[in-house]
Specification:
Strand content: under 5%
Helix content: over 70%
Mean pLDDT: 81
Order of helices and strands: HHH
Distance between the termini: 19 Å
Shape: elongated
Number of helices: 3
Low-confidence stretches: none
Amino acid sequence: MSMLSVFMIALGLSMDACAVSFAKGITLRKNVIRYGVIFGVAFGGFQGLMPLIGYFLGIHFQQAITSY
């Protein structure tokens, strides 16, 4: 799997989480834009980073994994 594929999967996951968190932020009564952006960046950022972390950990442990 190429780095571009991993990046595209991470981007798709982060956009999904970002949309959900924006919707959650909009339901709040005060500081709607502030909380919407905070939730969007937090959830989207974590969803985008998780596949990249998994990719780099997979590369690091590649020799141990391929022996099985």
